[in-house]
Amino acid sequence: MNDQTPITREQRIEKLQGQGCSRKRVEDVRFTQGKGNYVDDIKLPGMLFGDFVRSPYGHANVKSINTEAALKVPGVLAVITAEDLKPLNLHYMPTLAGDVQAVLADEKVLFQGQEVAFVVATDRYAAADGVEAVEVDYEALPVINDPHKSMDDDAPTLREDIAGKMEGAHGARKHNNHIFFWEEGDKEGTDKALADAEVVVEEQITYQRVHPCPLETCGCVASMDKITGKLTVWGTFQAPHAVRTVASLITNIAEHNIRIISPDIGGGFGNKVGVYPGYICSIVASIVTGAPVKWVEDRIENLTATAFARDYHMTGKLAATKEGIITGLSAYVLADHGAFDACADPTKFPAGFFSIVTGAYDIPVAHVGVDGVYTNKAPGGVAYRCSFRVTEAAYLIERMIDILARKLDMDPAEIRMKNFIKKEQFPYDSALGWEYDSGDYHTAMEKALDTIDYKALRAEQAENRAAFDRGETRTLMGIGVAFFTEIVGAGPVKNCDILGLGMFDSCEIRIHPTGSATARLGTISQGQGHATTFPQIIASEIGIPAEDITLEEGDTDTAPYGLGTYGSRSTPVAGAATAMAARKIKAKAQMIAAYLLEVHDSDLEWDVDRFQVKGNPELHKTMKEIAFAAYTQAIPGLEPGLEAVSYYDPPNMTYPFGAYIGVVDIDVDTGEVDVRRFYALDDCGTRINPMIIEGQVHGGLTEALAIVMGQDISYDEIGNMSGSSLMDFFLPTAVETPNWETGFTETPSPHHPIGAKGVGESPNVGGVPALSNAVHDAFAHKGLTHTQMPHDHWRVWKTAQSLGLTE
Amino acid sequence: MIPGSFEYHRPSSLDDAVGLMSSLGEDALLVAGGHSLIPMMKLRMAAPEHLIDLQDVQSLKSISIDGGKVALGAMVTQAELIASEELCAICPLLKEASLQIADPQIRNLGTIGGNVANGDPGNDMPAVMQTLGATYMLTGPDGEREVAAKDFYEAAYFTAREDNEILTAICFDAPAKGHGSAYLKQKRKIGDYATAAAAVVLEISGGNCTAASIGLTNVGDTPLLAEEASAILVGSSLDDDTVKKAMEAARAITDPASDGRGPKEFRTHIAGIMVQRAIALAQSRAK
Question: Which of A247, A253, B144, B210 has most Cβ atoms within 10 angstroms of its Cβ?
Answer without folding.
Answer: A247
